[in-house]
Amino acid sequence: MSKYKVIAFDLDGTLTNPERGQLTGFEYAFKKHGISYPSREWLKRYIGPPIHDFWQRDFSLSLEKVIEMIETYREYYNVYGFRENDIYEGIHEMLSQLKERGYTLVVATGKPEQIAKRILSLFDLSKYFDFIGGASEDDSRHRKADILKYTLDAVGASPERAVLIGDRKFDAEGALAIGADSIGVTWGHGSEAELEAAGFTAIAKSPKEVVKYITK
Is residue 171 part of a domain? Predict the structure, then answer.
C-alpha cells in the first residue's frame, strides 16, 4: 500500500509549459518599467521560482517596485499569456490513473488561484483535482511551503501522507520545509543537476515513472 494519500502537483513546468506566455509577460513588464535584461532566453530562469525574491535580488529593486512590476506582468499574462501554454505529453493519463486508484489530487502553484483554474480548464484538467491552491491575490502567500501547507490544510491532509510533484528546487525545498516528500520531474524547467542537488525524495523522467513511484 502506498504511503501517500494526497498527491500535490506544481503547475508550471509540471502539468503545463507556460514558457511562451510567461516570457512575453516578463518582457512586457521589464520594458514598461525601463529595466534592461540580457535576452528573452535569459528570462527563462524566472519560470518557477518566487519572482518577488529573485527580482529584488537580481535587479536591486525594492519589494514595492517588484510588486508593481508583477502587476504589470499580469496585465498581459492574465488576459493573453495564460493561453500561450502547452500541456505535457502523458499528463491526462497520469492524473487519470492516480485518480482511479483513489488518491486525492491537488494543485499547489505559485500562480494566483483564479489564473491557475483558468489554465487547468483550458486543458480539461480541473476534473482530476479536489482542490486547486495557489498564491493569494495580495501576494502574502507566494512561497511554495506556505502554498503547499495551505493546500494540504484545505483537504485535511497531513504532510507526512503527501508528496509534491514539481520541476524546480523550490518545490523540493517547500515540501521539505513542511515535512512532505517530493518528486522532481525532468521534463520541466529545472536541469537534472538542479533536481539532483535539491533533495527531492525521487526523480521521474516521465509521467509514467511518477505513477510507478507513487503506487509501488
Answer: yes
For the question of whether the overall pTM of this predicted structure is more than 0.70, the answer is yes
Task: Please state, in angstroms and rounded to a whole number, the distance separating the CA atoms of residues 50 and 46.
Answer: 8
Whether residue 108 sits in one domain with residue 46: no
CA distance 54 to 47: 11
Tens of pLDDT along 99-129? 999 999 999 999 999 999 999 999 999 999 9
Residue 112 CA to residue 149 CA, distance in Å, equals 15
* Same-domain status, 30 and 96: no
* Residue range(s) defining the domain that contains residue 63: 19-83
Cell numbers found for residue 24: 512575453
- Output the nine-digit C-alpha cell for 83: 493561453
Q: Strand pairing partners for 16?
A: 12, 87
**Contacts of 208 by beta carbon, 8 Å cutoff, 6+ apart:** 90, 93, 94
Domain count, the chain: 2
Phi and psi dihedrals of 204, rounded to 5?
-120, 140
Distance CA 51, CA 149 (A): 20
